[in-house]
Design a protein that fits this description.
A hairpin with a 2-residue loop joins β9 (about 260) and β10. The chain is about 45% helix and about 25% strand. The strands form three sheets. Strands 6, 7, 8, 9, 10 and 11 form a six-stranded mixed β-sheet that branches. A three-stranded antiparallel β-sheet has the order 1-5-4. A two-stranded antiparallel ribbon has the order 2-3. The chain is flat. It is an alpha+beta fold. It folds into three domains: about 25-130, no CATH class; about 135-215, no CATH class; about 215-320, Lipoprotein like domain (Double Stranded RNA Binding Domain). It starts with a helix and ends with a helix.
Amino acid sequence: MNIQATIIMFFGLLLTACSLTTSQPSWLDKPGEKYTQKRYLSAVGEADNRNTANDRALANLAKIFEVGIKDKSLDFSESQVTTNDSGRVTSNNQRAARYVTTEAKQVLEGAQVMETWESDEGRFFALAVLEKVPAERRFREGIRSADRKIEERVMYARQQAPNLVAALAALEQARKIEIQRSNLNRNLSVVRGKGITAHYDQAKLEVLLRDALATLRFKVMADSSQLQQNLESAISALGITLDKGSAYQLKATMDTEEIQKKQGWYWLRGSTELSLMHEGEVVAKKRWPLKVSSTDKGQVEQRAKDMLSAKMADYLYELLISN
């Protein structure tokens, strides 16, 4: 073969190689062709540099498991779940996260960026995948661990707790663990198609908490009629019985500073304290800061009263689960 033919062949191969590397890969729109849905979860990320594209691919993969828990103790409100199908993500129709949170990293343990590609326009694309079987194993282990912890706390509340506050605290811990378990179960459903039924779900634990609260009987003492009224309303909201003959006494105090004016605003600062005593012995005590403001001096104290009225039930519940 002469030199001219060799040069022609060389440039032909070079052009072929360039065309292969610059053409859009199939995994960009159809990741399941190479990484089958039966075995993998996958997601694509796009950015103007390779590292950010990798991060966004992992972030988009995490969104498949994404859950948002909004826990309000007295309402025992649960969560909403959002899921994103794997596929191409562009800056025009979705704001992709630039990082993966610590919680997401735990969920994505074992996830890898398997493919990257740069387009002619200088945009980078990355494909992240997670193998289902190892992920399923981890989620199952987490669920089993959570179930054991929940069972232990429920049994402690029923049989071993030295007082009512300790029992309520144990039940509240069980409820919070069940929220974590629910997240794990949703994750398991993503990789396996179905989860594992819980013996103690949120509904059952809420019933146990409500029943435990209903057994409580308190007498009340406060350093003002307004505070007394707030405390009695909070007791009623939680289903607790007001009993002047009870051995348990609930006490409320409020300390405030002088109203101060700064930059056109009037400020009132102080604190509210609740304590629960049994036959003179303090069982639980907790303090919360008080800080309200208004441009009208006459409204500051009223705002403080309104705030306490709105929050007293939450404060009381926090006190009762503080052990």
